Amino acid sequence: MTGHTMTPDALAASTAAEDRTSTIAAPLLEARAVGRSFAQRGTGGLWRARQTQLAVDGVSMQIHPGEVVALVGESGSGKTTLGRMLLGLTAPSSGQVLFRGEDVAGLRGEAWQRFRREVQVVFQDTGGSLNPRHTIGQSVALPLRHNRGLDAAASAREVDALLEQVGLPPAHFRHRLPHELSGGQRQRVGIARALASQPAVIVADEPVSALDVSIRAQILRLMAELQRERGLAYLFITHDLGVVRALADRVLVMTGGRVVESGSADEVLERPQHAYTQRLLAATPVPDPGRQSVREASTTQRLNA
Ligand SMILES: Nc1ncnc2c1ncn2[C@@H]1O[C@H](COP(=O)(O)OP(=O)(O)OP(=O)(O)O)[C@@H](O)[C@H]1O
Fold this sequence. Notes:
- The protein has helices spanning 8-18, 79-86, 109-118, 136-146, 152-165, 170-173, 183-196, 213-230, 241-247, 265-270, 275-283, 290-295, and strands at 29-40, 51-63, 68-72, 94-99, 102-103, 119-122, 201-205, 233-238, 250-255, 258-264.
- The protein is of the alpha/beta class.
- It has a single domain, classed as P-loop containing nucleotide triphosphate hydrolases (Rossmann fold).
- The strands form two sheets. It has a six-stranded mixed sheet, sandwiched between helices. The protein has a four-stranded antiparallel sheet with strand order 2-1-4-5.
- β9 (250-255) and β10 form a beta hairpin.
- α4 (136-146) packs across α5 (152-165) and α5 (152-165) crosses α7 (183-196).
- The radius of gyration is 20 Å and the shape is globular.
- The structure holds adenosine-5'-triphosphate (ATP).
C-alpha cells in the first residue's frame, strides 16, 4: 500500500480502512476534525492588533491499542498542540477528541480519572519537571498512591519494580534526588512515572531530543521494549525520522496544522507521496537499520543512561 495525500476527511476514512487493527479493536484515542486556534499578539500594539493563528486545522486520526503512531513535521507544524489536545491538556476550538469512543470534553468523575490514568505523557524534559526535593522513589510513588490508591507498602514494592523495569537498579536510585541523575536517567524516571498509572497509551513528545545521541538509542530501546512487553500504544511526536524508522508502525506527516500524508512507516519513508514529506526526507537523512536493532533489542542490552 502506498502513502496518500488527501483531505483530512478522506485521510481519516482511509486511515481507518487501511489499518487492520481497526477491524478488531476500537480506537483508544481519536481526533475527529480537531482544530485549535490561538490568539496572537500583533506587533503594532499590546492587544489592539490581535490575530488568531490556526495551530491545528481539522485533523482526524486514530490510535489503536498497541499501535505506535509517529507524528512528524517541522517546528511549528502543530504536532505538540495536537498531542496536548489528545492528552486533554488543551481544549480543541473545533472538532472532538474521543477516548475509547467517548468525547473527552464530556468526561466527568470516574470516566475522566480513567482517561487521565490511561493516557500518559513523556515530555522532552520530563526529568526537568520532577520535584527537585522529592527522591526518585517519592516521585514514582505519587501516581501509585494518587491514581491507583496503593498503600505505602504496596507502592514501595511497585516503585522498585518500576525502577527495575526502566533500567534503574532501585537500591541505587530510589533515594536519590533528581539533580544527582543524568539526563537519560531522569528521562527513565519520567517513563517509570508514566508507567505507574498503567497507561494504555503514552504521548511521547520529543522524548529523546534533549539527550546525547549515544543515550537516545538506549532510551528508544527501552521504550520499544516496554511497548512490546505491556502492549502499549504510543503517539511519538518527533522531527527525527530515524526515530520513526526505529519505532513506528504508522506515520502521520503534519505541516501548517494539517495532516498531509499518512501510511505505514515503510511506505512513507520509502515512497513519500506528498512534496512536503519528500522535502522533509531530503532534508533529514534517515539512518537505516535502526528499526531492527531497536525493535529487537533484548533486555540484557538495557543500560543505565
Ligand atoms: N499557547 C500558545 N499560544 C499561542 N500560540 C501557540 C501556543 N501554542 C502553540 N502556538 C502556536 O501554534 C503553532 C504550532 O505550535 P506547536 O508547538 O503545536 O508546533 P510543533 O510542531 O509542536 O513545533 P515544535 O516542534 O517546535 O514543538 C506555532 O506557530 C505556535 O507558535
